[in-house]
Amino acid sequence: MIWPTLANAGNSLGSLQVGGFFLPAHFAQEGYCDLVYMQEQQGNMESVYWAVAFGAIVAGFVQGLSGFAFGMVAMSCWAWFLEPQLAAVLAVCGAWTGQMIAAFTRRRTSYWQILLPFLFGGLLGVPLGTYLLPFLDAALFKAFLGTLMVIWCPVMLMSSRLGHVRVCSRLANALAGLIGGVMGGLGGMTGVIPTLWTTMTGLPKDKQRAVIQNFNLATLSVTLLAYIASGSIVSSMLPAIGLVMLAVLIPVLAGARLYVGISQSTFRAIVLSLLTLSGVAMLLSSVPVLLAR
């Protein structure tokens, strides 16, 4: 039995204070320290679960509003205390859940003529990214992409005189989808490049949102299947995965409801701001790794 005692009483008995409790010295020799350690670990795990839920709630709302960016928002919260493998799995599962909720709760046009090239490239890119993962310098790749986004997106956001890119061919769309699929295989960030490309080409917000959401749903589904097939998802992850899937339910719907009332210019500003923050998150995760080499 372990009980809290007054500090002076504990000190007079020569006891050891652990986790707010005073443990008599002879108890420590009998293995009671293990019990106290288990109690402390349980408290730490509860804090982690709360932090996981908070990240999922914020990321779910952002995804509901913009149609993408769950992974980047969630990873910016989780990367500080979760193992990278677990954080990536949770990001893919949460983003996939959000896209499924959007697909079943709000009717949307698919815009197949625009979507199909993105899908073709994305579905090729996911297995390619999964294959390249052991060989690619992920930190260098994230640093390059993050730098590009941190420079280009604010320029587009602050300058209203910049026109849209006139090259909007199926090949260019497929290439953007391919890069998005590769990034999905590398870590679930499927929507960043396709969203940037459709913003640069001036696609209307409703079309852009529908295309990106359908693209993300397809590529995230393939990524999730690849994680399952490769054994990346293990039984110890299931409680956290369940927590994330439950945590995104209401925030995704709340974000989608807010989206209805915003204008094209506001939506563009939101998307470019999120892409800029995504670039910052990539730099924060990659630059320390590169500097430590």
Question: Can you describe what's shown?
Answer:
- 75% of the residues lie in helices and 2% in strands.
- It is an all-alpha fold.
- It has one domain (31-291).
- The protein has helices at residues 7-12, 25-29, 32-66, 70-78, 84-105, 112-132, 138-158, 170-187, 192-200, 205-230, 238-247, 249-259, 264-291, and strands at residues 16-18, 21-23.
- Strands 1-2 form a two-stranded antiparallel ribbon.
- The chain is globular and about 50 Å long.
Topology, element by element:
Blueprint: H1 7-12, E1 16-18, E2 21-23, H2 25-29, H3 32-66, H4 70-78, H5 84-105, H6 112-132, H7 138-158, H8 170-187, H9 192-200, H10 205-230, H11 238-247, H12 249-259, H13 264-291
Short descriptors:
two-stranded antiparallel ribbon; 75% helix; 293 residues; mainly alpha; 2 strands; 13 helices; disordered N terminus
Query: What composes the largest sheet?
Result: 2 strands, antiparallel
Distance between the termini: 49 Å
Provide the domain count. Answer: 1
* Strand percent estimate: under 5%
Task: Provide the structure class.
Answer: mainly alpha
Radius of gyration: 23 Å
Low-pLDDT segments: 1-28, 35-40
Helix/strand order = HEEHHHHHHHHHHHH
Strands side by side in the biggest sheet: 1-2
Percentage of residues in helical conformation? over 70%
Q: Tell me, rounded to a whole number, the average pLDDT.
A: 77
Count the E strands: 2
H/I helix tally: 13
